[in-house]
């Protein structure tokens, strides 16, 4: 009986999370429709074709689904072996926008990398790499996550260089906020005490309040 179950699992492979797949497909479809709605007038005026930009978006969506399928079939424990490389790679690719003729200016902020055949935001790659890094870091230190320094301060220290580059080099506040939220949720789910976050938030709020009162008295 046990052998039969084992054989069935091997034949069926990994179970598919149909809800997650449906959510991804719906979001992709909505994204393509939004790109078509927003870009078709400008595409028509610039190129004479309404579907230029949406075709690129659709191609990237299909490519993303193919990569998702491939990556989902890789054992997640494999990624753990490369968590240090993921962190170093994050720092390097975020700094790459400062390289002349590589970093691209858009809207007054240098936060894109232009390789000629493709243009992308390194912050998007950094999000994935940091998930891999923190998943391994928190797993390796799961017994210390209840401590203030080892479970709260040290993980936060690792993210500070990334935030510094995003804020001061790329002026990318939205990506910084999103990364902080992702890391915070991972830390809480792993076992970091919620009261540490509440204490830090309260201290920041008090300091901001005092600063506001100080400047109001001056002016």
Description:
The protein has 219 residues and is mainly alpha-helical. It folds into 2 domains: 1-74, no CATH class; 77-219, no CATH class. Helices cover 75% and strands 5% of the residues. The chain is built from 9 helices and 3 strands, in the order αααααβββαααα. A 3-stranded antiparallel sheet has the order 1-2-3. The longest helix is centred in the N-terminal third of the chain and has 30 residues, at 18-47.
Outline:
It contains nine helices and three strands; from the N terminus they run αααααβββαααα. By secondary structure, it is mainly alpha-helical.
Indicate the topology.
Elements (H helix, E strand, L loop, with lengths): L1 H11 L5 H30 L4 H21 L3 H5 L2 H13 L7 E4 L2 E6 L4 E2 L1 H19 L7 H22 L3 H18 L3 H25 L1
Antiparallel strand pairs: 1-2, 2-3
Helix pairs in contact: 2-3, 5-6, 5-7, 6-8, 7-8
Quantity of strands, as a count: 3
- Average pLDDT for all residues: 85
Q: Give me the strand/helix succession.
A: HHHHHEEEHHHH
Q: Output the radius of gyration.
A: 22 Å
